[in-house]
Design goal:
Elements: H1 13-25, E1 38-41, E2 52-53, E3 57-58, E4 61-62, E5 69-72, E6 171-172, E7 176-179, H2 186-199, E8 203-209, H3 210-213, H4 222-236, E9 240-246, H5 268-282, E10 289-292, H6 299-302, H7 309-329, E11 341-344, H8 361-370, E12 382-387, H9 417-430, E13 438-443, H10 473-487, E14 496-501, H11 518-522, H12 533-540, E15 543-544
Parallel strand pairs: 6-15, 7-8, 7-14, 8-9, 9-10, 10-11, 11-12, 12-13, 13-14
Antiparallel strand pairs: 1-5, 2-5, 3-4
Helix pairs in contact: 1-4, 5-7, 7-8, 8-9, 10-12
């Protein structure tokens, strides 16, 4: 179904500019444009010299190791090869936080040694809860109230109100979305939008790895321009769009952690400036929601700074203000009531480890409120992000009784989809933020059942993520549909906003299934692009718009 071109078309900047103009003015726009197109393999021995080894930063942890390296062919200039963190990343990154040893990170891009095998279902330093690294943890600083932001003159329309509506057996498409990996050729990207439309969901989500798009401060490359155009294309196709921004480029990070995992910039304003540029270039009317960072309660995503809700709020506040300014500067005549929702980063469901390498997601969320989240917006344009995964537990299940066939990953509330929704809601209400919505920016269930390697043999999950072997593909399909239905039923429909299923198409990255990457187990398509049972089941559910 889907192939990876070794020679993506290059368009002149004049044509790119023309397309941007057409995308902004014409809903009937159908032009095709180039996007990222990596090629993956285990060896470069038979590859032509123009192939450049480039590890891909994956959504649920690192996708790279010494034996499975993505190669980006015939790249648009400049190459992202030097922009993606290669060091300090284990070759078997756990889905909800990579687990590595407790020694200090290497000063260069040398991969860290593999960890011991995680203990099933135990929230310990070797469990798949989160990264385990050095013990140099600084307690969160005392909260100092910040002054209210000031903005240029002009008012914005109020955010759209999500009103619970009874739909019988049908699901609301406007509360359903799916994440698409963006390392695709132009035609492949269009094909994935077709697949999302076939599913009947109203949202698509893209993650922006900032390090790929701004190689030097203020310099944006062709990959950046392609991403701008693709977000516009998705919006023109009728989808609402959510973008998640993470992974600072080396130039913005502290010198001692450059090329080591991922982390925020030294200066929070640099993140705000990048987000502002992307909103400005894409045009606010084509973006419906922005999630500020990804799982910052894990050291692998927050390397170089203090893991705490207090520290995160230093970044969230200027990013939020920048988004408001860009919306005020570019009011839309086509969508006069349009407003971008700004979402706090979905933390990884986890516990706090004594060495400071992870912070429990519940505690981390409470710190956001300790540091002013509830009072930052007066008109409801801030949502609370959640990554409400269920491991092998059904969506309706509560802690801590194992379901039949589940032999681990059930002993703690963070292993449960529903428990995470309930816990976050309680924190929101307790802190006077009950009017806000909970945005599930990632959720899903994973299984390798039914997946096959490129040689046709059955594929299997890596031993480090044994929970992926606990359910079959029919259970995966049922759990996903039931999770959407649960969230759209009382009392959850009173506070749960759109939910983004993770993911549509990571199996289509060559080598992902062959190398038993955990990301593939979540996908709705197999490695040939064929629908898995979860895709078929979700497509079949009646939906209303």
């Amino acid at each position: 179904m889907m192939t990876y071109s070794r020679a993506p078309r290059l368009l002149s900047l004049a044509l790119i500019s023309l397309f941007a103009l057409l995308a902004a003015c014409s809903p009937s726009q159908t032009e095709r444009l180039p996007t990222e197109a990596p090629i993956y393999g285990r060896s470069t021995a038979t590859l032509p010299p123009e192939i450049i080894n480039t590890p891909l930063v994956g959504q649920l942890g690192a996708v790279n190791d010494a034996s499975a390296t993505p190669m980006l062919a015939a790249q648009l200039s400049p190459s992202p090869a030097t922009l993606i963190a290669q060091g300090g990343t284990p070759s078997s990154a756990a889905t909800f936080g990579a687990v590595i040893d407790a020694s200090p990170p290497p000063p260069t891009a040398t991969p860290s040694p593999l960890p011991p095998t995680p203990v099933q279902g135990s929230p310990t330093a070797t469990s798949p809860f989160g990264a385990v690294v050095d013990p140099n943890y600084t307690p969160p600083p005392t909260y100092t109230p910040m002054p209210s932001p000031t903005f240029p003159s002009g008012t914005l329309p109020p955010p759209a109100t999500l009103v619970p509506v009874g739909t019988g057996e049908a699901l609301r498409a406007d509360l359903m979305g799916v994440q698409i990996h963006g390392f695709l050729t132009d035609d492949e990207f269009s094909a994935m939008l077709d697949r999302a439309a076939e599913l009947g969901v109203g949202w698509v989500k893209f993650q922006l790895a900032w390090e790929l798009y701004e190689p030097a401060q203020g310099q944006f490359n062709d990959f950046y321009r392609a991403k701008v155009l693709n977000v516009q294309r998705a919006s023109i196709r009728g989808f609402k769009t959510l973008i998640s921004v993470a992974k600072a480029p080396n130039w913005a990070r502290p010198p001692e952690v450059r090329d080591v995992e991922s982390g925020p910039p030294s200066n929070p304003q640099h993140l705000a400036d990048f987000i502002a540029a992307f909103v400005r270039d894409t045009k606010p009317e084509f973006i419906d929601a922005i999630e500020i960072w990804n799982e910052p309660n894990l050291i692998r995503e927050w390397r170089g700074s203090t893991i705490s809700g207090a520290d995160y709020m230093r970044y969230f506040r200027p990013a939020y203000e920048a988004i408001l300014r860009e919306q005020r500067a570019q009011p839309s005549t086509l969508k006069p009531n349009h407003r971008i929702m700004v979402i706090t980063a979905g933390p990884a469901p986890t516990i706090t480890l004594a060495d400071g390498s992870t912070m429990g997601d519940r505690e981390w969320l409470q710190e956001l409120y300790n540091n002013g989240l509830a009072t930052l917006s007066a008109d409801g344009d801030i949502g609370v992000g959640a990554h409400s995964f269920g491991w092998a537990n059904p969506p309706e299940a509560r802690c801590c009784q194992a379901t039949s066939g589940v032999s681990g990953w059930y002993e703690h509330p963070s292993f449960y989809f529903r428990e995470t929704l309930d816990a976050y809601r309680q924190i929101m209400v307790r802190n006077g933020h009950g009017a806000a919505r909970l945005w599930v920016t990632e959720f899903g269930w994973a299984t390798y059942d039914g997946l096959r390697r490129s040689d046709g043999t059955p594929a299997s999950a890596d031993a480090s993520v044994g929970w992926q072997a606990l359910i079959n593909q029919e259970q995966q399909a049922a759990y996903i549909v039931r999770a959407f239905r649960l969230a759209q039923s009382a009392p959850y429909n009173e506070f749960v906003a759109p939910m983004m299923l993770w993911n549509l198409n990571f199996t289509l990255i060559p080598g992902m299934v062959d190398n038993s990457r955990e990301e593939a187990g979540f996908a709705l398509l197999d490695s040939q692009g064929n629908p898995r049972p979860a895709f078929i089941a979700l497509r079949a559910v009646p939906k209303v718009r």
